[in-house]
From TrEMBL:
<dbReference type="InterPro" id="IPR014880">
    <property type="entry name" value="SoxZ_dom"/>
</dbReference>
<dbReference type="Pfam" id="PF13501">
    <property type="entry name" value="SoxY"/>
</dbReference>
<dbReference type="InterPro" id="IPR013783">
    <property type="entry name" value="Ig-like_fold"/>
</dbReference>
<protein>
    <recommendedName>
        <fullName>Quinoprotein dehydrogenase-associated SoxYZ-like carrier</fullName>
    </recommendedName>
</protein>
<dbReference type="InterPro" id="IPR014756">
    <property type="entry name" value="Ig_E-set"/>
</dbReference>
<dbReference type="InterPro" id="IPR038162">
    <property type="entry name" value="SoxY_sf"/>
</dbReference>
<keyword id="KW-0732">Signal</keyword>
<feature type="signal peptide">
    <location>
        <begin position="1"/>
        <end position="25"/>
    </location>
</feature>
<feature type="domain" description="Sulphur oxidation protein SoxZ">
    <location>
        <begin position="177"/>
        <end position="265"/>
    </location>
</feature>
<dbReference type="InterPro" id="IPR032711">
    <property type="entry name" value="SoxY"/>
</dbReference>
<dbReference type="Pfam" id="PF08770">
    <property type="entry name" value="SoxZ"/>
</dbReference>
<feature type="domain" description="Ig-like SoxY">
    <location>
        <begin position="37"/>
        <end position="147"/>
    </location>
</feature>
<dbReference type="InterPro" id="IPR030831">
    <property type="entry name" value="Fuse-rel_SoxYZ"/>
</dbReference>
Amino acid sequence: MPGCTRRLPLIAALLGIAFAVPAQAEEAYDPWPGLVQDIFNNRPINDGADVIGIEMPYRAEDAAIVPVTLRSKLSPADSRRIRSITLVIDRNPAPMAAKFELGADANVTEISTRVRVNNYTDVHAVAELTDGQLYVSKVYVKASGGCSAPAAKNAEEANNRLGQMRYRQFAREQVPASRIREAQIMIGHPNNSGLQMDQVTQLYIPAFFVNQLKLTQDDSPVLSMEGGISISEDPNLRFTYVSNGAKRIRAEAKDTDGHVFRNEWDVEKPGT
């Protein structure tokens, strides 16, 4: 017994090493280089500290609805503009959360939405400029389980609201005479990730989400989104743009089951 007692600390130490190595290896693994190859075809990506900003909470309150804001940091004197922004949540099952294409004349400088975060992870925002160059910024977010979290609404309620759109416009008090507008589009949709489990049947709910969204002022493009499973339930985009004098804002969304949803609003009376 005394011999066994003396060996216990050694055994415990060895077991600790055995269990610690995989955890350390997982923590040390960086998926970003592989994502650069898969998503951006290994194109060179420059430091984007002066080009694109990304804001997210360091520790998320709810991993299924984590707010994220993407903001242009280009100087007004810079003749280039941002053509597209790709949002990558490195450790999510489908890392490319969304790609936003910005209208050539809309001068979109800020986009906010809500995403699911499945693990502690880096989140990258990659901007492609009109000169063809890519620029990246990143933040680190502590959250887990967002992609498998149960839906906030039951299936019947979600189906009743499927495709319903709301459009809001916000006053910009600091520049009342400006053509810069701030608006929000909301779409009723469960945006199922394919990783959520039906609490009654204990079966996985098939992936079902909005994968395309296009916004125009009359027929001039403002913003489009190619979305994936990381966009939260009831997709929600808030953005700034420059008005071209159009009287109508139009939205068209499509989901992975082939549904097409359309709506339009009077810019001066956006309503619901």
